[in-house]
Amino acid sequence: MSPLTESTFFILLSLIPGARHGYGILQDVAALSEKRVNLSTGTLYTALKRLLDDGWIEPVEEADATRGRRTYRLTAIGRRIVDEETARVTQVSAVARRQLGDAR
Amino acid sequence: MKILWLYALLLRLYPREFYDRFNTEMVEVFTQAWSRHLHRRTSLTVFCLHEFGGLLLSIVIEHRRANSRFGLRRLFRRRFVPLWLFVFSLGPAALLSQSYWGYVMVPASTISAVSSIDQIALVRFDADYTPSVVPLNAMPTSVLSDFPPSQILSAVPTLLEMDVALDPALVRRLLAALAREGVELGVITEQPREPVINPNGCGTNCFHSGVQPQADGSLLVIYPEMAVEGQPRMGSFTQQFTPNDPWYYNFIIPAGYVVQGRDANGVPIIFIAMAGRVGGDRHRYNELTFVQEADGLTLRNRQSYNFDIAGIEGVNMPVITLFLFAPLLALWFTIRLLGSLMSVIGKHVIRRQSSA
So what's the ipTM on this one? Predict the structure, then answer.
């Protein structure tokens, strides 16, 4: 699997605690990335559509979904993707730290 | 609120499917983002550049994605797995059909090369491959659809005299041409074969006859005795068939047509259709088209394959494909089912752990 883009990774991370609606994801992504990743509404939904099509997230049927408050949650596949990406980032980070430590 | 109206209007630029699916949500999210902007009093320019720039970028991406709907990447998604399984089944089925029968789909008869027919004769090919004319009504199987030469009849435009004797000179040239091409007509049995009875008993499926051509031209056919109620009974009985017997040609005698005519340019040609044997589950079939020249016959076209009359005539490849595809599809659905089951169990466990 190729590494995830930063925005995709943060969107998936924002759904770890539970289901979120679109605006909630926008805020979470900004908060988790310490405002490095600021998604617009358009780019958020382009990413959400791809994640939905790939089966990494799924919509949660709610009563007020018709009023534009549809929420999304991670699927089992999405959760596995997050775990794998986290492991990859952790490994890369460990290698980088080790190398930097050796250099010092 | 003109900005909301403008945003809602621009959403129309998305592909229809995307618009129908997300426009309500996007207006809602944009409204919330706008409210937040008003509340925090951030720069309008920055907000507009961010939101509308992102919107336009997203519209471009979605249109590109919609245009590549049938692109390769889409085809590798899970929903297309059955399609790929079908394609993967087609390959081995085609290879198997090609190697065993000599065709993927039964090729069309090359009789179409003959534009006008001067004479057509139904013939049997003797042990030395000498063709001799057979009355059409003496070979009932010649009009059965699973006897490839019978398909020639439908291509004959006019009713012609079929029982015309072949010119001896033409027969000689034909024999020379066939010998040069090394045409295999199938095995002509000279000695009776050992009757075979499956010791486990298999009804008519273990029926194998031995055939011995006799000096008077008749055929001595040796039948094994049939299994009775699943119990094999050794032994055999014989029956002699003469050329006047309708089933005479159902045994090892190769047969077919010799068609004399002209091609579209008026060039005299000879078309030969030969079945290695009339009966049997799988027999060799040849079609050869020769150009008649002053010094003999020159091959123009030839096609040969093994025709199977075991119930899947000409559709071997589709039938094999289904036999390969069905278990693969069942396996795929089983895997999907197990995956879904494990997902549900996993969710249940996580929910229990969360509540604990």
Answer: 0.89
Distance from CA of A76 to the nearest CA of B (A): 6
How would DSSP label each residue in B139-176? -GGGGSTTSTTHHHHHH--S-----PPPPHHHHHHHHH
Q: Is residue B351 part of a domain?
A: no
Find the CB nearest B32 among A23, A38, A66.
A23
Contact B27 A68 (CB under 8 A): yes
Q: Domain for residue B346, yes or no? A: no
Mean pLDDT by 10 residues, chain B (356 residues): 82 89 91 86 81 88 75 64 84 84 78 85 76 69 59 63 79 87 62 41 46 71 57 59 66 75 92 71 82 90 78 73 92 89 83 74
The single-letter code of the amino acid at B347 is K
**Distance (Å, rounded) from C-alpha B257 to C-alpha B60?**
66
User: Which one of B235, B250, B265 terminates a domain?
Assistant: B250
Q: Is residue A57 part of a domain?
A: yes
Nearest neighbour of B24 by CB, restricted to A40, A43, A68? A68
Nearest to B54 among A40, A53, A66 (CB): A40
A75 and B343 within 8 Å at the Cβ level: the answer is yes
Asked if residue A1 belongs to a domain, the reply is: no
> Distance (Å) from the C-alpha of residue A93 to the closest C-alpha of chain B?
28
Q: Rounded to whole angstroms, how far apart are CA atoms B221 and B188?
A: 13
